[in-house]
Amino acid sequence: MKTLKLCLLATMIITLAACKNDAKKQTIEEEVEKVVEEVTEEVKVISMALESKSGSSATGKIMFTEKDGEVTMEARISGLSPGTHAIHIHEQADCSAEDASSSGGHWNPTFANHGAWGAEAGYHRGDIGNFEADDSGSGGITFSTNEWCLGCDDDKKNIIGKAIIVHQGADDFTSQPSGAAGARVSCGGIIE
Fold first, then answer.
1. Tens digit of pLDDT for each residue in 107-145?
2. 76 bridge partner residues
3. Which sign, positive or negative, has the C-alpha torsion 99, 92, 170, 114?
4. CA pair distance 175, 155, nearest whole angstrom
5. What φ, ψ does residue 43 adopt, rounded to 5°?
6. pTM: predicted TM-score of the whole model, two decimal places
7. β-strand 43-52 against 70-78: which pairing, if any?
8. pLDDT for 34 beyond 70
């Protein structure tokens, strides 16, 4: 996005230098400002850190990007045990408890059963799924959906004010209400 803004700024400067009258300069400046505003409004980005919980050393960074009605989450986590780990969105952006229990349960604004994302039997809006940590304890996941938003007025989509939780184990996608994924080893609040 910075590259686009710099290109637009460079175009504006070149065009302004070529213009001979102030009225034309004013019009071009207004048009460029509108384009920059439109580009800025189309993309929302929130970055956050994950902190260790439950005596683990798991930390990480997550970036949410909303563009054209779709939110993409890119998560990179380290300090995990090798193997499969669950990642979910929980109800509250509160990671104050040592075991992250202060974040509440899975975010489930539609009151559905827990399950794999997109399952016909149902799933929570916070049921992201599982990812693999390698032998060094590092892993990541990229996930996109139009069922989330960043700061919109729809309580069934807005993930601001929620938390990301990484679990010690894998989500089995069947145990209710949370997939039996084990301890909460990392937590971070999704806040603007």
1. 999 999 999 998 888 899 999 999 999 999 999 999 999
2. 61, 140
3. positive
4. 25
5. -120, 125
6. 0.77
7. unpaired
8. no
